[in-house]
Specification:
Length: about 475
């Protein structure tokens, strides 16, 4: 009986051993023939094992050569060595798996893009033994994405001369530059800061960048930092856990969670206090954040587009803004011109706003006298004030600036009754008047030099001559243009 039992155990062990051999052989075949790199390194970046695909990706002839010559993959092959330190920091924070993309040097010095998966392995004493994972060469995918970005920028750059860019209206030289900056910002993942007075359309620019970027299918989350009480700011951005404070009856996700894979638009950036700047900086740099009342570090992949009407450099000098936070946000600056500096766009804005009213509504007409008043005003409230003024004009039939009637001759103020006595301004006339003034101002700026003027306006010399003939703009004397 005992002998029979021993024979049975030996047969079972032999069967299990055979299964283990087959499993090991299957694993070895997968390991050797995988198209992706499979590796294991110690904490110092020394390869312990690597499959042939790993060696090929890094430009080595064999796994043995790779393991022999690479003493620290972080120092020898990372284009940005700081990326490896970021991964190690995340592992130290308790992340079980880290996925990221980075640039590497091959053995011959050429650069390639790779997608990495890193998993830390610990012993029974919870001590880090080594890291293992997968690596894929994504250089071709990156090239294709870059080509698409460049094509996108090229197509958008052809908008030069157009008067509409998404919801943004204007064809002045200043706005054409803004359109080009929007296109360039959209093709990048860098943070953007938009400067401009109140009412210049900073949020419209931010939204246009988002909608043209690779993040367009993901959330565009907005917050006006100046409208959030300081005591609620942290919970708004990072969220909170149940029980974090009185009234916190459930977990709540913050704005950073909501903006994951998308864009976070921070209006009134200068209103964020120093303490929150420190925490935001850590989140922006990939170090994660901790919800109010929470213990675990959480992460979100978001892009920041900020806006302000303040001088942020001055706030840095005054100690009201961290210098490192400023430079992390101030990567692509966009300066929006106030409406008083692009008055040639006013007729276009007026026409666009008026078209937004219901076709069934009887509207007052825009006469030359009314348009002259609108273009002569400096608009301290910018486009927002212009829109509000037109709303009052539609409702009351009079041009009214901040409660004061504009000086428009009574005979020229149009009412809701159609009349042939009033000279109505047609869009073409308004645009022509605006275009004529733009050309005259450009000629003055370039002292009558027609080639420079044409280049400054973004048109050919022939087009400039034709337009000068059309508008009877003849010669320039000193700083005066003769009509």
């Amino acid at each position: 009986m005992y002998l029979t039992s021993q024979i049975s155990i030996s047969l079972e062990n032999a069967r299990l051993f055979e299964q283990m051999k087959r499993a090991e052989a299957d694993y070895r075949e997968i390991f050797e023939n995988a198209s992706d790199g499979i590796y294991r390194t110690n904490q110092d970046g020394v390869f312990l094992t690597a499959n042939p695909a790993m060696a090929r990706i890094f430009g080595y002839s064999s796994s043995e050569e790779l393991i022999k010559y690479i003493n620290d993959v972080g120092k020898q092959h990372y284009v940005d060595p700081g990326r490896r330190q970021q991964v190690m920091d995340l592992i130290q924070q308790g992340f079980k798996v880290v996925d990221f993309e980075a640039e590497f040097f091959r053995k011959d010095g050429s650069i390639f893009w790779a997608s990495l998966n890193v998993r830390p392995v610990y012993n029974e004493n919870d001590e880090l033994c080594f890291m293992e994972g997968f690596i894929s060469d994504i250089t071709e995918q990156k090239k294709q994405m870059q080509a698409l970005h460049e094509e996108n920028v090229l197509l958008r750059s052809k908008l030069k001369g157009n008067y509409r860019f998404g919801k943004i209206i204007g064809r002045s030289a200043g706005m054409q530059k803004i359109y080009e900056l929007i296109s360039k910002a959209a093709s990048s993942n860098a943070n953007v800061i938009i400067y401009g007075e109140s009412g210049t359309g900073k949020e419209l620019v931010a939204e246009a960048i988002h909608k043209m970027s690779d993040r367009k299918e993901n959330p565009f989350v907005t917050i006006n930092a100046g409208a959030v009480p300081e005591t609620l700011m942290e919970s708004e951005f990072f969220g909170y856990k149940k029980g974090a404070f009185t009234g916190a009856t459930r977990d709540k996700r913050g704005l950073l969670h909501s903006a994951d894979k998308g864009t976070l638009f921070l209006d009134e950036l200068g209103e964020i206090d120093l303490n929150l700047q420190t925490k935001m900086l850590r989140a922006i740099e990939g170090g994660g954040f901790t919800p109010l009342g929470g213990l675990d570090v959480e992460n979100s992949d978001f892009r920041v587009i900020a806006a302000t009407n303040q001088d942020l450099k001055q706030r840095v000098k005054e100690g009201l803004m961290r210098e490192d936070f400023f430079y992390r946000i101030h990567i692509i600056p966009i300066y929006l011109p106030p409406l008083r500096e692009r008055k040639e766009d006013i007729p276009l804005l007026v026409e666009d706003f008026m078209q937004n009213y219901s076709a069934s509504k009887k509207l007052p007409k825009i006469t030359i006298a009314v348009m002259d008043v609108l273009t002569s005003y400096d608009w301290p409230g910018n486009v927002r004030e212009l829109q509000n003024t037109l709303n009052r004009y539609v409702a009351l039939g009079e041009v009214n600036f901040l409660g004061e009637n504009a000086m428009v001759p009574n005979d020229d103020i149009t009412n809701f009754v159609d009349s042939t006595r009033h000279e109505e301004i047609v869009l073409d006339q308004a645009v022509a008047k605006s275009e004529k003034m733009t050309i005259i101002n450009a000629l003055k700026n370039f002292q009558g030099h027609k080639i420079k003027t044409a280049a400054g306006l973004g048109i050919s010399r022939t087009t400039l001559f034709n337009k000068m003939k059309k508008y009877r703009i003849q010669t320039i004397v000193g700083t005066k243009v003769r009509n």
